[in-house]
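Before the break, one more example. Copy the sequence into your notebook; we will annotate it together after we see the structure.
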Amino acid sequence: MEERLLRRKDVQKIVPISTATIYNKIKALRFPKQIKNGGTACWKMSEIQEYIEKGEEYVHQKLLKQKELEKVS
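Here is what the structure looks like once it is written out:
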């Protein structure tokens, strides 16, 4: 199944937080990072669903682990 991509306004319909809060949480590794799709910032639907279902702390721990793995490789 193909991953659905969401634009910021669609993310904000699902997770009602401001644009500034989204980007501050991304910087703090507390919200899924956006990807570029043809120069447009998009988020993977699966990652937004995970954020909603498992919570911000779960996403934070996952992103911390990913960052550590990136440092090693």
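Helices lie at 8-14, 19-27, 45-54, 56-72. Residues 17 and 23 are 10 Å apart (CA to CA). Try to locate both features in your own notes.
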